């Protein structure tokens, strides 16, 4: 297993390079960019935009600057100054190589429009995304696995039918729509005013005792996590049910029952270990989705300033250092989570041997 982990860790490097190169090329070909935006703002505000953005670094990124800039009426010296400020005076391959060198040390440069380093922005937004993703994933798994097992054991029963109906309805409701419903019902919208509408903590959080801080933290998370969970457990529940049904029909289960083992011993001593493999395999995708993509609208609705919102705003503003920095972090975490998933495979079922599979 040790050599397999080392090989997987070594493969992370070329995978990151390939993904960063692909996105670098795509951004290079995309229309618009921070230079064009700043030029337009400079023309509209008499040059004040240039002075506000003078702190923006990030020569490690690319731009899709068009040839039409010279016809906008700005002096050539000002155009060159803007290009130098953003690092677009260098050829594309030099910018890409510099980006790789900087990213190797987690130096993502400065945001073009926020006057802060990218790593500071990521660290500042990370607690929100981790809070949403971690608690949502935990609750989804705590609900889905027992529910899926129960549905598999009682397949075709009244409980199975009505629970499937509830799951389908929950899955059909978009998370952001359910979030709005929760606000209307419980956050002072039209009925009850039980939960706060914005932020991860209260304004007086530092003045609270430690147990009050814990309560305040979960008080703010209650509605956004609920909105995240409502549609997330449907797929995992049905996946667990179908996995258990597939295992229950196999010969080794029939043999175990014929030996006189109790149903709980058969279910949790034999079926559970095999049925959980496919559920474990879905964990990295669930984590990455809930951490960085699935919670975007939830963050917007509940005014939670997390990584999803940060990446979205960076894409709109063509803030390339933030785009590439968050992409790098997302990709790296996804690859590491996938490796952790494989290790968990072996912990659940020691019969799995990835090293022999790679050698075959």
Automatic annotation (TrEMBL):
SUPFAM superfamilies with a match to the protein in the record: MetI-like (SSF161098)
Domain ABC transmembrane type-1 per the UniProt entry, residue ranges: 126-341
Listed Pfam families: BPD_transp_1 (PF00528)
A single cellular component GO annotation: plasma membrane
Predominant location category: membrane
Transmembrane segment boundaries: 130-149, 161-187, 217-240, 275-302, 322-348
The keyword NAD appears for this protein: no
Keywords: Cell inner membrane, Cell membrane, Membrane, Transmembrane, Transmembrane helix, Transport
Annotated spans, Disordered: 46-73
Membrane topology annotation: Multi-pass membrane protein
Gene Ontology process terms (BP): microcin transport; transmembrane transport
Biased composition (Low complexity): 61-73
Subcellular location: Cell inner membrane; Cell membrane
Similarity comment: family membership: Belongs to the binding-protein-dependent transport system permease family.
Job of this protein: Probably part of a binding-protein-dependent transport system. Probably responsible for the translocation of the substrate across the membrane.
Protein name: Inner membrane ABC transporter permease protein YejB
Origin species: Marinobacter algicola DG893
């Amino acid at each position: 297993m040790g050599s397999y982990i080392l090989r997987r860790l070594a493969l992370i490097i070329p995978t990151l390079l390939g993904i960063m190169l692909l996105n670098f090329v795509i951004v290079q070909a995309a229309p618009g960019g921070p230079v064009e935006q700043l030029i337009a703002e400079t023309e509209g505000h008499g040059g004040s935009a240039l002075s506000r953005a003078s702190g923006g670094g990030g020569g490690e990124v690319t731009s899709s600057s068009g040839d039409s800039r010279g016809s906008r009426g700005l002096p050539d010296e000002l155009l060159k100054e803007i290009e130098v400020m953003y690092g677009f005076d260098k050829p594309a391959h030099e910018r890409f190589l510099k980006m790789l060198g900087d990213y190797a040390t987690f130096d993502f440069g400065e945001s073009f429009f926020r006057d802060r380093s990218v790593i500071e922005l990521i660290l500042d937004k990370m607690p929100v995304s981790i809070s949403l993703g971690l608690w949502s994933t935990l609750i989804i798994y705590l609900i889905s696995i027992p529910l899926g097992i129960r549905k598999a054991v009682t397949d075709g029963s009244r409980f199975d039918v009505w629970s499937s109906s509830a799951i389908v309805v929950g899955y059909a409701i978009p998370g952001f729509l359910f979030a709005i419903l929760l606000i209307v019902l419980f956050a002072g919208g039209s009925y009850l005013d039980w939960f706060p509408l914005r932020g991860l903590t209260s304004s007086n959080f530092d003045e609270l005792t430690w147990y009050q801080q814990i309560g305040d933290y979960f008080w703010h998370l209650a509605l956004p996590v609920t909105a995240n969970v409502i549609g997330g457990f449907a797929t995992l529940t049905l996946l667990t049910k179908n996995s258990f049904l597939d295992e229950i029909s196999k010969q080794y289960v029939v043999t175990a029952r014929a030996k006189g083992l109790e149903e709980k011993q058969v279910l949790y001593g034999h079926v559970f270990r095999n049925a959980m493999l496919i559920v474990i395999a879905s964990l990295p995708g669930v984590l990455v989705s809930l951490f960085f993509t699935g919670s975007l609208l939830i963050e917007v609705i509940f005014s939670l300033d997390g990584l999803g919102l940060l990446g979205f705003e960076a894409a709109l503003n063509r803030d390339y250092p933030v785009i590439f920095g968050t992409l790098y972090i997302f990709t790296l975490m996804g690859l590491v989570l996938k490796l952790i998933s494989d290790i968990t495979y072996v912990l659940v079922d020691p019969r799995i041997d990835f090293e022999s599979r790679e050698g075959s």
